[in-house]
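Hello,

Following up on my earlier ticket. Below are the two sequence lines again, exactly as submitted.
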Amino acid sequence: MNPIKILVAAKRVVDYSVRVRLKPDHSGVVTDGVKMSVNPFDEIALEEALRIRERGEVSEVVVATVGPHEAESQIRSLLAMGADRAIHIEASREIGPLEVAHVLHHLVREIEPGLVILGKQAIDDDCGQTGPMLAALWGRPQATFVSKLTLAGGRAQAVREVDHGLETVEIDLPAVITTDLRLNTPRFIKMPDIMKARQKPLEKRPFDGFGFTLPRLEVESYLPPPEREAGLRVESVSELVTRLHDRGVL
Amino acid sequence: MADTDSLRYDVLIIGAGPAGLACALTLKREKPELSVAVLEKAASLGAHSLSGAVIEPRFVDQLLPGWRDDPLDIQVPVTRDRFAYLGYEHSYRLPTPPQMHNAGNWIVSLGALVRRLGAAAEALGVEIFPGFSAVQPLWDGAGALAGVRVGDLGRTRDGAEGPNFSPGVEVRAGVTVLAEGCRGSLSKILIRHFGLDQGRSPQTYALGLKELWQLPPGRTVPGTVLHTVGWPLPSDLYGGGFVYHLDRDRLAVGFVVGLDYGDPDFSPFEVFQQFKHHPSLVGLFEGGEILSAGARSLIEGGYPALPTLEMPGGLLVGDAAGTLNVPKIKGVHMALGSGIQAAEHLARTGSPQGFDQCFRQSDMGRELWRVRNIRPGFRTGLWAGLANAAFETVTGGRAPWTLSNAHDWKSLRPRGAVKGKAPRCRPRTLPPPDRLAFVDQAALHHEENQPVHLRIADTTLCVSECRARFGNPCTRFCPAGVYEIVTDGSGPRLQVNAANCVHCKACDIKDPFEQITWVPPDGGSGPNYANL
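Thanks for your patience. The regenerated structure is below:
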């Protein structure tokens, strides 16, 4: 098989260890001073691309992100992890999955990758739409929620985590893969690689330059989940049964 | 250089706090040709930074011209100073001590300030490495400090190399600047190795806890600064509370308590929570929400305990050295100032030699000298301490004596030996209900399967002598609930919940057998404070 290029898409999100809080006016979550990170599923996507490259099946791993100016620090950490080059589409507002899919489609036509790997979802909005939308726009096969990936003879065999267990699919390349948690464990970044990453090409383009006029979701308000009501302590099994009866559960 | 396991810089700075970044920034301004790197154990800049923080702005003006016009996430000018003595029921306004006047000062988030300093330093070419901790000194042939070894990543609980193991590199440098902050683990090793504290008073510390609150609209008076003494502390204990009113209905509240206390049953966490329930304060918090919370230790020994600030190949700056001004209850300006001064000294002479004298003869050194007797005066209790502080302030520190501190780990008395009535407690209604809920607000990240970073020399001591004499004070002085005595089949044993650790170092300081050693966990572990 001729070596292919892999495009990895990544998003800057509020770090998973942070307890997210709503802004007092409910217009979004508080990000002041909050730790931001690469979406963990996207790190898994890059790790997978790097492992494929280490097996010699890949000529180049390109990582792309659509996000604010500050996302540069996340992109740099992906370069330090091992991506060959990066494209940062700078946007000054929140960009939805459909818009990101269109951006990626544009990059796909330019880069002509054999594989696009993305996280199955971003841990901030949990949409899980960008990968499938890209596959549809591109008109290529997709395997989502992938926990094992094997490439051979221009095809990809992917094990998918589905509700009833594991499902194995075979698809033709080029294709879109979205990653599940168990696909791999991303490597630690090494200090010398952080320095090397400063020399790697990072191309910036304005999102507005694409001139998309796409339908967008407008968020009216964010609300916290309702607070759980206090529990009730019962003295005996018979009291438990009575209480359950009273509530119409039994 | 990147192909080997060793990196090399002209100056290596350990710790991206105010002292380290002020030093890095100034070095690059004075001598752009120097290569300067900063190692930081937190996952991102400012994530381990916690302070009140009411700061004197003079050094910020020097380091970040124009910062006032481009506000940090938290940046409010002080408009009103209040100092109060709290009884159980009432609050009595006291005259604000002269050192605690805050006209012209600013309330900021130290984390936000650190991020801004870091960005300015990076723009000048300083290489900052968050997520990497320095674990070991490196020596040159002549026995001078020659850099540090960075901690390994990906070891498993038993110390074996895990599947993602990544060995720590050696970072070598002409000069290594220790800017680790209070009770820095590497600074501790180096102070001992070079005997930098020989002939000085023992060092003394405090523990500070802080919460950042979002309150219902209209309750705050932005710029108001309140400091309190008295309830809920017994009068023989040094410490007090603070309440800083910020903008956008935000409020910072905290409590600082001297770690020289004697009663092993004392709980700094409980005292902080009680403080919020004082009748004059509780109404502020009701219905509000905690945005972030954490704890740190403070270095309070001042001039009598200040170690020699230079060693062959290295320097100590900021809280790693112990430059905090206790009567002002401020350390940030001293940290920034000592970092700047270290950089100027290195740029001028190229060597650590002479820095100690240079610092002591500077305005900052004289500032510390004048107030040297104030903190030790509180060893005899609040009122004697205040009287002594008044005397020292009036005489400007010209008394012919220098008072000494004692070791905090020696100050615990056997359980029941501390007489005197404990202050009354109030029923608690405000969050957090317990220490687990408290550390939940610190956004901790800690890979559970790494080696335990709280090294205890002999855990049998915990369930024998320590239990009998002190009733395991570690289960109370730790603000994060790291230490627990659990009883299972084989009887009581110490359980260390290392993943709860907020890196405050109280255990390393206060353990009465001096047998807990705090070492850095995997780089990037620990709290992720948001604007503390």
